[in-house]
Automatic annotation (TrEMBL):
GO terms for biological process: putrescine biosynthetic process from arginine. Keywords: Hydrolase. The keyword Hydrolase applies. CDD domains: nitrilase_2. Signal peptide: none annotated. SUPFAM superfamilies: Carbon-nitrogen hydrolase. InterPro entries: Aliph_Amidase/BUP (IPR050345), C-N_Hydrolase (IPR003010), C-N_Hydrolase_sf (IPR036526). It comes from Ruicaihuangia caeni. GO terms for molecular function: N-carbamoylputrescine amidase activity. This is Nitrilase family protein. Gene3D superfamilies: Carbon-nitrogen hydrolase. Pfam families: CN_hydrolase. Residues 7-250 form the CN hydrolase domain.
Length: 277
């Protein structure tokens, strides 16, 4: 008898206060517990969920950064993951060797499994963070092979493709999506990039975006969970604090993805024909 490998994943939209690490920590831990109450086995939190995003410079982002080794927020997420037997992915300002990265961490009930540092910095992030230096790590887990990106990374096809070429089944995307100038009467560009990335790489994508306004910058929410065919399984979420849920099967869908007779954007690749650089 085949045992289902499906599980419920959640994306939690929060509204962090810049620089208020204690309040933001409580907010994220409450969201983890609410997601667990809803049956989630894995919950994704937004980008920079611990300290806020709109920093004026490196000194300010440094003051809100934490170590992945002994930072209090990471410790709180580890405790919640262990208590609820749940996996947690969240964005935070990472302090490492006196350098600050816009990072995401993947935590299991046993502790930290992976850290990703945002490769593509957007706009004023270049003044507050150092570009990531870990590439796009993918880790093997009981839930499937999992990679991470952060927000603006989704605008670069190489981001999700790098995860997919390493065998990722699921890409987690903590995000702080903002309105795009010239938006037409159609899905947000952020949603479209997520859908396209899921479809063109045959991976599930769970993107959790924050809400609220920070130093004049509005954040749209609209978190989504996309299936490996690109179609939305949950979301877009409304523009307020909320949690969305979907059932996914990253391990059980591998054969279906590989043998898709309609589109096989991974299996039909021809790298020898592509421009390099």
């Amino acid at each position: 008898m085949t045992t289902s490998t499906a599980f419920t994943i959640a994306c939690a939209q929060t509204d962090p206060v810049i620089g208020d690490l204690d309040a933001n920590r409580e907010m994220t831990v409450a969201a983890i517990h609410e997601a667990a109450d809803g049956g989630a086995k894995l919950v994704v939190l937004p980008e920079c969920a611990t300290g806020g995003w709109a920093f004026t410079g490196m000194d300010e982002s440094l003051a809100a950064a934490e170590s992945v080794v002994d930072g209090p927020t990471i410790a709180a997420w580890k405790a919640a993951a262990r208590e609820r037997d749940i996996w947690v992915c969240g964005g935070f300002g990472e302090l490492a060797d006196d350098t600050v990265y816009n990072s995401a961490v993947l935590i299991s009930p046993d502790g930290v499994e992976s850290v990703y540092r945002k490769v593509h910095l957007w706009n004023t992030e270049n003044n507050a963070f150092t570009p990531g230096n870990l590439g796009f790590p993918v880790v093997d887990t009981p839930l499937g092979r999992i990679g991470m990106i952060i927000c603006y990374d989704a605008w670069f096809p190489e981001s999700m493709r790098s995860c997919a070429l390493q065998g990722a089944d699921l890409v987690l995307a903590p995000s702080d999506w903002v309105p795009n100038p010239g938006q037409q009467d159609m899905p947000s560009l952020a949603n479209m990039m997520t859908i396209a990335g899921a479809h063109s790489n045959q991976v599930y994508v769970a993107a959790a975006s924050r809400v609220g306004v920070e130093r004049g910058q509005r954040f749209i929410g609209e978190s989504v969970i996309a299936g490996h065919d690109g179609w939305l399984l949950a979301g877009p979420a409304p523009a307020h604090e909320a949690i969305i849920f979907a059932e996914i099967d990253p391990i059980g869908s591998r054969q279906e993805r590989r043998d898709n007779i309609f589109n096989r954007p991974l299996g039909d690749r021809r790298p020898e024909a592509y421009a390099q650089g």
